């Protein structure tokens, strides 16, 4: 509630309309269209007199083509979603003899928030209110609570509409774009003969990489024994402490402490000065003597890490985190469902 209230407080007290994202969340799961040759060759670029179309992009830069498909999917989702919403409102308005703009608010009765609710919101968000008293913020808080009532009413209305007027997107799935990504004996979790292999390129200092670890752990737990997870180094050049952290992690491999070090480094991402990294690593039980001996050969360690970076760049990795699920590229710290969908399909093949 704190984050919702904070963003809402910046707005004037007025009616806040529900955007199309709500209908997307409640309505349906949209798939990407297949890209047949006759369509992907319509648009092109001419370079030095030679014409190149999307089929050339697909052949030479599969990751760029995959990103194109993803963006096209989002565009379709927005376009059809807005169209579907308008049509649904028209149908309901005709049935009930009201205007389309009145559909969401039909039957809406706002109750006055209780004093207890008002005080709870105030106390939960007091630190964000700049020292203002309850009396000074009461009007805003009441508006916020009434807006929550409107949103709940709108969600219920959408559910009613969808039940009466089902919506199906008749769109075909595209072929999966795959690239070959080598493991190169990097640290891994899961059986070597697993049907699904996930290769992660990540950076211990990257906040998005840290955020993605919760999802990664959920996936490994759900598909324990069914997937193999491989970690490859990709410290970004503008993260000044990342390279040292990755070297330290690699120095823990031989003693079987890699995943312990891995976890502690991500837990402390953002606090990875050299002295802190050394402290975190040794707290995992790693031999101080062996660790210091390994860290002396920084040239060798950097060479191994840079090889990971180069391999990642060859297959289109330009930022972190980046994942390849059986060669299918997934970019960024995305929700669990995005990975889960791909993994399920791969296990069924």
UniProtKB/TrEMBL annotation:
This is Thioredoxin domain-containing protein. The keyword Cell membrane does not apply. Keywords: Disulfide bond, Membrane, Oxidoreductase, Redox-active center, Signal, Transmembrane, Transmembrane helix. PROSITE patterns: THIOREDOXIN_2. Residues 167-348 form the Thioredoxin domain. InterPro entries: Thioredoxin-like_fold, Thioredoxin-like_sf, Thioredoxin_domain. It comes from the Bacteria. The chain crosses the membrane at residues 16-36. Belongs to the thioredoxin family. DsbA subfamily. The keyword Signal applies. Pfam families: Thioredoxin_4 (PF13462). One of its GO terms (molecular function) is oxidoreductase activity.
């Amino acid at each position: 509630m704190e984050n919702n209230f904070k963003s809402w407080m910046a707005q004037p007290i007025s009616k806040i309309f529900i955007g199309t994202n709500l209908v997307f969340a409640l309505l349906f799961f949209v798939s990407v269209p297949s890209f047949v040759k006759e369509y992907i060759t319509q648009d092109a670029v001419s370079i030095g007199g030679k014409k190149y179309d999307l089929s050339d992009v697909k052949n030479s830069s599969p990751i760029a083509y995959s990103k194109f498909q993803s963006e096209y999917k989002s565009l379709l989702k927005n376009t059809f979603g807005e169209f579907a919403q308008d049509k649904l409102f028209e149908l309901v308005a005709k049935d009930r003899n009201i205007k389309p703009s009145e559909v969401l608010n039909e039957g809406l009765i706002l109750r006055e928030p209780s004093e207890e609710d008002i005080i709870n919101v105030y106390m939960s968000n007091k630190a964000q209110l700049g020292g203002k008293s309850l009396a000074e913020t009461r009007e805003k808080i009441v508006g916020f609570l009434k807006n929550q009532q409107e949103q709940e009413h709108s969600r219920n209305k959408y559910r009613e509409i969808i039940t009466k007027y089902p919506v199906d997107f008749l769109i075909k799935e595209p072929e999966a774009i795959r690239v070959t990504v080598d493991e190169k004996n990097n640290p891994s979790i899961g059986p070597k003969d697993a049907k699904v292999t996930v290769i992660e390129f990540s950076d211990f200092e990257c906040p998005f990489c840290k955020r993605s670890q919760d999802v990664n752990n959920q996936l490994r737990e759900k598909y324990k024994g069914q997937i193999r997870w491989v970690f490859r180094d990709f410290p970004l050049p503008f993260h000044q402490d990342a390279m040292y952290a990755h070297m330290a992690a690699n120095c823990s491999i031989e003693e079987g402490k890699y995943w312990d070090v891995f976890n502690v480094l991500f837990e402390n991402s953002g606090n990875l000065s050299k002295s802190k990294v050394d402290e975190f690593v040794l707290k995992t039980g790693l031999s101080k003597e062996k660790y210091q001996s390994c860290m002396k050969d920084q040239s060798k360690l950097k060479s191994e890490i840079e090889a990971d970076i180069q391999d990642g760049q060859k297959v289109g990795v330009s930022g972190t985190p980046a994942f390849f699920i059986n060669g299918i590229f997934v970019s960024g710290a995305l929700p669990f469902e995005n990975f889960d969908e791909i993994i399920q399909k791969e296990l069924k093949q």
